[in-house]
Design brief:
The chain is mostly helical and 464 residues long. It is 78% helix and 1% strand. It has 20 helices and 2 strands. Strand 1 and strand 2 form a beta hairpin.
Length: 464
């Protein structure tokens, strides 16, 4: 365990953090601050049914693709991850989570636009992601296979153990249920969904995600309003802890930055290469449309849901208790504000959040297993491992083990994807310029044809 933590510290040194922020700033500049200038267009696209091409009724809608990616984003990271970041890095970690969201949304736009551009046909939907744009865009098979392996291990396996561990801990804290009992029930529920394919995953996500996000947001707003007099103090604590002299002298400033970036990445996944797998499944008339919608997902996840958890914890004042961490801290904070129903609400919320994440995470692995092989036997084994073995492993093992595993996987996965999108980002910039030009010409629904990029036209399977 100690060796694993040392490896994580080395990988998560300021080099990788600098790469994440540096790429985000570069993408922000080259897209002319797309994440701020086009928020209105993002909201319009999310609900506009006309953006789907004719004859795409059986394909995954743009909204469904958005909810599949948001299902993976909005999960353990929003409740347990935020609490862990505060417990280890202090309140200042929240500021750096916000920075990662604001900067990282441009990265999310680029990677999801590339996912759409290089997608491929697959039965009644599309399939794609970083492995696909690495192979077709960079013509680097070994790197594409490496990414496919990393994301399958990270999301389909390790990440699902984190979600399972958090659900079991929440249920034990609220109802006294034994973790292994919860694990068995969770395993059965997950296997039923994952054996149903992307259509079933998309349907379940499009129902669960809005329900859980709105419910949690409403509760957080109620708590904040009840303690509105504390809000200036909470914001002051976050900012001072992010830049404070005391934190720099005490050595906790670095911990705040590192934990804010790590937990921010775990939560919103911007730059990690996961969301493009869901973005690629959507049927849209222009790749930029799904890129804009996925950028909105980063805002929704971190600036809204993560902030809700942070405010609840900081208002309670319990973040200074050394014995509280992870989901237990979130439950204790809610209990201090709304009474004995707090832990029960968190248990239900974390179940919905983490369960939806598990099925979203599973699909990321499926898309990449299919990239490596068409064998149904391999796919069946992966489904059993993701929805069965790793769910039970998460129920059985400790919080520290699962978080150390996912930190290592995220570091390797992110490094691989950042190299790819830094090299391929020029195509996303050109697509965005084309989209904006069509909008300026009065075209309400811009379209794209692969002949518009003649140098890579032969590498684009779709966009006839």
């Amino acid at each position: 365990m100690e060796v694993l933590n040392q490896i994580n510290d080395a990988l998560w040194g300021y080099l990788l953090i600098g790469a994440l922020i540096g790429c985000g700033l570069w993408f922000t500049w080259n897209t002319r601050f797309v994440q701020f200038r086009m928020v209105g267009e993002m909201l319009r696209l999310l609900t506009d049914a006309s953006l789907r091409p004719k004859g795409s009724e059986k394909h995954i809608s743009s909204f469904q693709a958005f909810t599949v990616s948001l299902a993976s984003r909005v999960g353990t990271g929003n409740l347990a991850g935020v609490a862990t970041a505060i417990a280890v890095g202090g309140p200042g970690a929240i500021f750096w989570m916000w920075v990662m969201a604001l900067v990282g949304s441009a990265t999310a736009f680029v990677e999801s636009t590339l996912g759409q551009l290089f997608k491929q046909h697959h039965k009644d939907s599309f399939i794609g992601g970083p492995a696909y744009y690495i192979q077709r865009g960079l013509h680097c098979r070994w790197m594409a296979v490496l990414f496919a392996i990393l994301i399958t291990v990270s999301f389909g396996l390790a990440n699902n153990s984190v979600q399972s561990n958090t659900i079991c801990g929440a249920m034990e804290g609220a109802f006294g249920w034994h973790p292994l009992t919860t694990g068995v029930v969770l395993m059965v529920m997950t296997l039923v969904i994952v054996f149903g394919g992307i259509q079933r995953i998309a349907h379940v996500s499009s129902v669960l995600v809005p329900l859980m996000a709105v419910g949690y947001f409403v509760l957080a707003i109620v708590i904040i309003v009840m303690n509105i007099q504390l809000l200036p103090h909470v914001l002051s604590v976050i900012v001072k802890s992010a830049f404070g002299v005391e934190q720099a002298i005490g050595g906790t400033l670095g911990a705040a930055i590192m934990n804010g970036v790590k937990r921010g990445l775990f939560s919103n996944e911007a730059g990690e290469g996961s969301a493009p797998n869901a973005a690629a499944t959507a049927s849209v008339t222009h790749p930029v449309k799904q890129g804009l919608i996925q950028a909105l997902g980063v805002f929704t996840d971190t600036l809204v849901v993560c902030s809700c958890t942070a405010f609840i914890i900081l208002i309670s004042g319990l973040y200074t208790s050394p014995e509280l961490n992870g989901i237990m801290l979130t439950q204790a904070a809610l209990e201090s504000e709304v009474g004995s129903l707090g832990p029960v609400f968190v248990a239900v919320a974390i179940f919905l959040f983490a369960y939806s994440s598990m099925i979203g995470n599973y699909y990321y692995g499926e898309a990449n297993v299919r990239f490596m092989t068409s064998s149904q036997k391999v796919m069946t084994l992966y489904r059993l491992a993701s929805g069965g073995v790793m769910v039970m492993f998460g129920a059985w093992t400790t919080l520290e083990v699962v978080w150390s595993m996912i930190d290592l996987c995220m570091a390797l996965l992110t490094a691989c994807n950042l190299i790819a999108i830094a090299l391929l980002g020029k195509y996303a910039f050109r697509l965005l310029n084309d989209y904006r030009q069509q909008k300026r010409q009065g075209i309400k629904e811009p379209t794209f044809h692969r002949s518009q990029l003649p140098e890579i036209e032969q590498d684009l399977e779709c966009w006839e």
